[in-house]
Each structure stands twice: as structure tokens, then as C-alpha cells.
Structure prediction request, 418 residues.
Amino acid sequence: MSNRCELGKFSFGMGDRFAHQAKAQLRACVLAAGCGVDIVPVWNKSQREHAIIGSNPASVRAAAEQAVKELGWNGPWHVDADHIRLATVGWFLDSSDFFTIDVAEAIGRPAAEDFTRAFMGRHPELVGKLEIAHIQRPVATSRAEVMCIAGKYLFAVQEAGKIYRHIAQVKGEGRFITEVSMDETDSPQTPLELLIILAATADEKIPLQTIAPKFTGRFNKGVDYAGDLERFEREFSEALAVMAFAVQRYGLPKNLKLSVHSGSDKFSIYPPIRRALARFGAGLHLKTAGTTWLEELIGLVEAGGEGLALAKEIYSEALDHTAELCAPYAAVIDIDPAKLPAKERVRNWTAGQYVAALRHEPQCKEFNPHFRQLLHVGYKVAAKMGRRYLELVESYEAVIAKNVTRNLFERHLQPLFV
Prediction:
């Protein structure tokens, strides 16, 4: 790998809760390469996930390195410090070369008045009529509107700049990939808001390679997108248009691309994304995480015996602790408790019944998205089992790996890229 980290056109973020599926995950990228599509694997894990599992950032890199070695992967790959802030980034500096800087909590906090005035002075082009290719109507703006938007986002961009410079001081300029995440907020960014964010990012001299804005609709964990598909496609296309404009106007990196978070299992938006990418010749970073943990669980169920018994126990415990498990993920799950099967019923399920309820095949009448979402956040139950859980995962590696690879390749990479 060269000294300068540059993210390829198509990249795929892969979470691996228990650090046992990196090889199976990478095999999906190998299959895509066999179809003529180069996809850069990026292993991502957040501090929250490390805290729940009891792991550390070095374990993510170690698992990735082992997978790369065993499969003879010659392409680029990265390790993402997912959703870091200034207070948490230090733990990841040694092991990561990709940093997802999360400043969503800073959105809405006002920047200093002199900073906002200076921004307005640097960017008179933002006031008036903006002609942006591929956006049908000119974006009409007023000074008051631009000031209002700047007031909402400039402090957050300043925070991103502080975190970026802290990382660069340790890692060195150009030695890592920078993503800025603004998706965990109340409402989607408009084209003008995104443009102002990108202009401010350029002012901060952040060499942004990917950005995760907020899109319309629900991006719940482990299940399909819920929302207006036409509106999503319009927003996604407008974001691509704004980014292309900002790259030319503000000198941002030419490989700047959109990042879609909670991107796993969003099957209905993959065709709109693919169409938009083709229209613009654009790249994409899609971030996934818990879908691999669920395939790990499905593999245990399919193995039967102890694996099936353990999966039933995990559900039973998760059901007993639903509120506790769901609280940290409240913004990205929608579970109707009335639609969760009783644990006594699940205790009597066959492996086939359990898999049918859990595997994400929306056309299957037994599929239960509420059951799936609870188990998605229920990995904490497995984590508490420690070696008992991991020993079974290791015992049934073959059947689990087959499920992990098939899920990522056939349900995710193929419809998006191949």
C-alpha cells in the first residue's frame, strides 16, 4: 500500500462483532472481483461495540490481516474507527487507517459569530442563484438562509476539523482516510445544506473522501429501508450532484463519495442507488455491521443440536431484556413487542422455523422483522456468554462462513455493484 491512503471507487464496510468472520466477509469481495468488480473491504467497529463485546481495535486489524493473508488478497483494505469523537479517537490511532468522524451531536450548536461572518465573507457565491448540473432548478438562496444554515452546521464542521488534525498529528497527513458522519440527526440535509457543509469542510482543510449525510426514511438495523423510494432516489442523486459541484468549486478530493450507514439489508434502495451511481459515474461506501452477526446466528441454528439450543437461549434472554438492549439503538429500530414470539413458542421451533423467522427474505411469510431486529441488538447476550458462545462458533465455522459470504455477496454486493 502506498503512503497516501486513497479509498477506491466502491468500498464496503463490514462489521464483525466477534472477530471470527473476516475471512468469510473478504471472500464476498473475492467473488465480486471474480465478476470483474473491484470492491475495497473496510472492517469497521465502534467503541460501543468494543465495550459490549470486550474487544479492542487491535483485534479488528489482527482478524483482517489474517483473512487477507489466508485468502491471498492483493487489493487494498482498511480498518475503520467507526463513529469516533475527540474523546474516543485515541484508542483507535494505532490500529486504524480509516476514521469515521461523527459530529452529529454538534449539529445545531452555534459557531462563534466572528467565525460565521468570516465564512460568509469567504463564500459570497452561496448567496443568489446556484446552477448545479443535474439539479433541475437553480438553487435560490438568500443571505439570511445561508447564515441560518451556517449557524446550524459550522460548529460541527469545526469539531470535525479538530478531530481530523488530532489524527493527522499522530498518523501523518495523507496516511489515513477521513469520513465525516452527519447521518444521526433529525432531518435530511437539503442540497444547499450539504453544499455549505462541504464548503466549510474545505475551509477546514479536511481531505474528505466520504461523507455520510442523513437521507429521508428509516434506516433501521438489519431490515429493509422504510420510506419513499422516489424521494430517496431524488435526494441521493441531488447529493451526488452537489458533491461533484463541490469537488470542482472547493478543491475537495476527486474521489469524494457518499457513505450510506446502516446500509446492510436495505434491499429496496439498492436499485435506486445503482441507477444514480451509473448516471454520475460515482463511487459509494456502504457500511454494514450486524447483518454478519445475524448470519453467524443463522449458521448456529442450521448446525442444529447445541447451536440451535444456544440460539433459542439467546432469544429468550434478549426477550427478557428487550428495553435494556434496545435503548442504545432506539433511533434505528422499530420493534412492536406484540409481534415478538413468546419464548415458549420459540423453544419448540425447529431449526427451519427459527431460520425462516430470522433470515432476511421479505417474501417469506414466516419472516419476522421484529424478531430479527431484537436479535440484531441482542449480540450483547452472546457477548456475555464468552467462550461458551465462541467455541460453538468455531465448531460450526464451515456452515456459518457459507451463510456470511452468501449474504454479503448475493444480497448486498451483487445488486449494488456486480
Summary: Residues 143-171 form the longest helix (29 residues). The longest strand covers residues 40-46. Residues 303-400 form one domain.
